[in-house]
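Expect chain and fold; see below:
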Amino acid sequence: MTDEEMFMPRVNRREFVKAGTVAGLAAAAPVSAFGQAPTMVNRGASRPVVVSSGNGHQFKNGGAKTCVEIAYERIVKGEDVLDALIAGVNIVELDPEDTSVGYGGLPNAEGIVQLDSSVMHGPSKRAGAVASIEGVRTPSLVAKAVMEQTDHHLIVGRDAQRFARSMGFKIEDDLNTERSRKSWIEWKRRTDPLHYLDPIKKQAALRQVDADMMAEGWVDPNHFYGTINCNGVNSQGDVCGVTTTSGLAWKIPGRVGDSPILGAGLYVDGEVGAAGSTGRGEANLYNLASFLIVEGMRRGLHPKDAGLEALKRIKANTVPRLLNARGEPNFNINFYIVNRKGDYAGVAMYSAEGNRSRFAVCDDKGGRLESSEPLLPGNPT
């Protein structure tokens, strides 16, 4: 026996087999979420469903069916999920009665309607978006053109309009309706005397003007932040989503919120699910909450639990100037979530009355509004 053999540790047959088995299992194990690739959700049977913000089951643009009803009907007939969802939101974009998106959306501080939108197609892993686009009633279709006709995700401002024109979209001089223009004129009338106030007092006065106009019926409280998000899945588990908005009422020209930003206003992973939002966009942007929700579902969370987890993150990261007297966020934010199996949820920061605490659903039971799961009771104020 050599010196090397004398000092080698002896391993019996059972220990050798056990060690080999452990090594084999380690080699076959999937890469963790912190490794080179994300953990994939096992494929299985999927149940077709469409979920959206509450205005997805309110406006019909003179037709017989709402956004979620049209989208679901097209999905079960075999149409591409994203095409079906966009056809649904087009109804809301074109309806002048909805002042939160598209034609007749509440304008910016200069009285100009600027629109944002994003789309994501789970099966093909593609996406497209536009921001601050003017003159096109259906920005969701322009976002789809960005996805299909370019190698980019986002085109903004006048160049987004130029792109839309090159794609054959009709460009209009003004997307205001009589209603949206009257609301803007009333806002200007109330805020012009405030231009020379102390900046802090001015902001407080502007917030009071907004609150007064909502209380008096000039602005629908559910449309002050605007937006419709709509997500869906078919029986094959194909997941897609779309978000479209006129943005924050009276915003600074050029302001872009969360709606056209992937991971914030919308995020889709074809192996997992989709999430999108309405409400205060800046709070969502800071936390990339839609991405966070989808990653929560990847870890096995139900859509509702993943949504509440994201709301807790937003609450924890809210800056002091946006806290109410209770020390909680002074804004509402909502998420609409579906996984590729067809499980869904709507969650909200607050259980406020109206569409901000309700979301739209359509499945084999038909279109309806359901109550969102709130993180906090009451209202933001």
